[in-house]
Amino acid sequence: MSMPAEHTLDAPVDLAAELARCAAGERDALRRIYDAEGARMIGVALRIVGRRAVAEEVVHDAFLQIWQKAAGFAPERGHARSWLYAIVRHRALNVLRVETRTDLVEDFEPMGLTSAEEDAEAIVSRLSEASALRRCLERLDPTRRSLIVLAYVHGLTHGELAGRLRVPLGTMKSWMRRSLSSLRECLP
């Protein structure tokens, strides 16, 4: 006696149908795509960027893009799997391009961008102890708190921050996005 398709453990996922569900706002569809393809996508990204943590960031960013652009997938123009992997490859190659540009500027200190600045901890400590912003900033990891201060008080760009910490631009953008999201959730 055979089981219905939805109960079969190895049933293939209809990626095109799942993308249509993503376009309709069904978050579980994105999870099903990730469960079906995520490990292979990390493998593709890893072959391109060469570092597991960066590959995971690439796939994370790719899934954000997949969610946002799912409505743009047109099955008549190609296979869903090809569309998904094109996004991953594009993100990974962008990370490599940015890393190459960042590597050209070995360090920002020779450009005079460090010692004149007040450090993030001193700035946060000057905020009123009753301040919601101070309370929320103190909940962040010290590195993430410093990034927020450097970006919003000192005006450093994502690229400058990525160069300082020697991380890919995509990683820096993800860190900033997550840090700002944490602040938004914390602030009334």
What does this structure look like?
By secondary structure, the chain is mostly helical. The protein has two domains: 5-104, RNA polymerase sigma factor, region 2, helix turn helix motif (Rna Polymerase Sigma Factor, Chain: A, Orthogonal Bundle), CATH 1.10.1740.10; 109-186, Winged helix-like DNA-binding domain superfamily/Winged helix DNA-binding domain (Arc Repressor Mutant, subunit A, Orthogonal Bundle), CATH 1.10.10. Helices cover 68% and strands 0% of the residues. It is built from nine helices and no strands. It has helices at 15-23, 27-49, 52-69, 80-104, 120-126, 132-139, 142-152, 158-165, 169-186. The radius of gyration is 21 Å and the shape is elongated. Mean pLDDT is 79; it is low at 1-8 and 101-116.
CATH class category label of the largest domain = Mainly Alpha
Distance between the termini: 57 Å
Instruction: Note the main sheet.
Output: none
Number of strands: 0
**Total count of domains:** 2
Low-confidence stretches: 1-8, 101-116
- The CATH architecture assignment of the largest domain turns out to be Orthogonal Bundle
Averaging pLDDT over every residue, what do you get?
79
- Rounded Rg: 21 Å
Q: CATH-wise, what's the superfamily of the largest domain?
A: RNA polymerase sigma factor, region 2, helix turn helix motif
CATH topology of the largest domain: Rna Polymerase Sigma Factor, Chain: A
Strand portion: under 5%
Shape: elongated
> Helical region count?
9
Helical percentage: 55-70%
SSE order, one letter for each helix or strand: HHHHHHHHH
Quickly give the structural class: mainly alpha
